[in-house]
Automatic annotation (TrEMBL):
Pfam families: Methyltransf_31. SUPFAM superfamilies: S-adenosyl-L-methionine-dependent methyltransferases. It comes from the Eukaryota. Keywords: Methyltransferase, Transferase. Residues 38-147 form the Methyltransferase domain. GO terms for biological process: methylation. This is Methyltransferase domain-containing protein. CDD domains: AdoMet_MTases (cd02440).
Length: 269
């Protein structure tokens, strides 16, 4: 297996993890839930702080769930979360989606949420997920397509442009949700065994705006993304501060609305 360098744009700073821990199986993997059975074994690739992983474990009480991430940073928090929920059928470890440390035909389900957009080789990732899922098993993937925000501003548009330029500079994949079926076919899945769909998120209440916009405000002020943007001269500290203030203005605006469109796919081996 050839080595593939990671190209993850974000780090695991508190402002980044804040936008991850809200995610659960219902709001981020609903397209998969009808196919889960209590005895299933599940691999959650790119699990981060484990909020989706532990929710999946809760839904397969006689099964086993493994969550993996390419670095160890968020995994202690994931273990603590599982412990606080009283779950004993889930564990976490470090692994690279490009070269998963599991035997062929190991899991009933392999799940990846908002992971492929950040990595170097999505087709190789699909091949690895296909390899470790059992015959008849499911590979389930969700990825972003686009976001829509109201009201917008010059600084918020600059924030979106900055994220796009950083992903392009690091080889990441924008609008990854549009390409899932193409990557899956290249990885060996038959078109007849693919189920394509779309999902969405919406942040419109005061609490929802605070959750997302507040995290983006902090990310613009202090995160790996902000430090990289300054170091690579993609944005100045002054520009980042303007972006942070724009997010705060959006949070406080009762007309503030933010929506995300996602592509989703279920692939049967």
């Amino acid at each position: 297996m050839r080595a593939v360098p990671p190209t993850y744009t974000n780090d695991h700073s508190p402002s980044v993890l804040q936008t991850y821990v809200w995610r659960n199986a219902e709001n981020s993997a609903a397209y998969l839930l009808p196919y889960l059975r209590p005895h299933m074994s599940i691999l959650d690739v790119g699990c981060g702080p484990g909020s989706i992983t532990v929710d999946l474990a809760r839904r397969v009480p006689q099964g086993q769930v493994v969550g993996v991430d390419y670095v160890s940073d968020p995994l202690d928090g994931a273990r603590s979360l599982a412990s606080s929920r009283g779950l004993t059928n889930v564990k976490f470890d470090v692994a690279d989606i490009h070269s998963l440390p599991f035997s062929d035909d190991t899991f009933d389900v392999v799940h990846a949420h908002q992971v492929l957009q950040h990595i170097a080789d999505p087709v190789l990732a699909f091949r690895e997920m296909r390899r470790v899922v059992k015959p008849g098993g499911i590979v389930a993937v969700q990825e972003s397509i686009k976001s829509m925000i109201h009201p917008t501003s010059e600084a918020l548009e600059a924030w979106g442009d900055l994220q796009a330029r950083m992903r392009q500079a690091t080889g990441n994949h924008t609008k990854a949700g549009l390409q899932l079926h193409v990557w899956a076919r290249k990885a060996g899945f038959s078109t007849a065994n693919l189920k394509k769909s779309a999902g969405s998120w919406c942040f419109a209440t005061r609490d929802e705006r605070e959750y997302w916009g507040g995290a983006m405000e902090e990310r613009a002020r202090s995160s790996g993304l902000a430090m990289t943007a300054v170091r690579e001269k993609l944005a100045s500290e002054t520009e980042l501060q303007k972006m942070a203030k724009a997010w705060r203005t959006w949070v406080e605006n009762e007309d503030g609305w933010l929506g995300f469109l996602h592509g989703q796919i279920l692939c049967w081996k």
